[in-house]
Design a protein that fits this description.
The protein is mostly helical. The chain has 3 helices and no strands. It is globular.
């Protein structure tokens, strides 16, 4: 089953002290938040291509593309100085 590009959040899956949360935190600790964001952007980009080519669902593909673009922008933000002197990078666009 393919995950949908929706705004719903699985709070139970990523609840505090859940195995999924520990795994994600460990990944961030190992490779850094920028690399995790970049990987998520690549995953979203692949899902956009797959959705458009296999399902001819361009509207869902566009949602995946927008997520890819936003995540890649966050990942690359610190390389262009957006994260300097910024406590919350999401608020420093």
């Amino acid at each position: 089953m393919m995950a949908q590009a929706t705004d719903s959040i699985s709070q139970a899956f990523f609840s505090e002290n859940s195995p999924a949360m520990f795994e994600l935190e460990g990944m961030v600790d190992r490779v850094g938040i920028r690399n995790v964001l970049y990987a998520l952007a690549r995953i979203c980009d692949g899902k956009a291509e797959h959705t458009a080519s296999m399902w001819q669902d361009t509207s869902t593909a566009q949602v995946w593309n927008r997520w890819a673009w936003r995540l890649e922008g966050l990942a690359e933000g610190s390389t262009i100085g957006r994260w300097q002197n910024c406590i919350d990078p999401l608020a420093c666009d």
